[in-house]
Amino acid sequence: MPELSVVIVAQDSEQRAILQVLVDGTSVARTVHSCASFPVVATDPVVRRIQSATPDVVLVDVPGKPLCSPLAAWPSRRQS
Length: 80
What we know:
- It contains three helices and three strands.
- It is an alpha/beta fold.
- Helix 1 links the parallel strand 1 and strand 2.
- The protein is flat.
């Protein structure tokens, strides 16, 4: 079975390193790229880097607090 290629997106460098160790420690996946920032728009260079890595999986660490701006802007809140 071929290995899965994984891109890791995490703002926290320690969390990014932990996720990379966990992914690379398996026999089924390997990290091909990691990003320290979330893409904000479709033309963001991060998007191009992720696409050029052609990953099978994109692993995104969503921070608990504070929310990063792209996630905070997500239309999930209901207006009362």
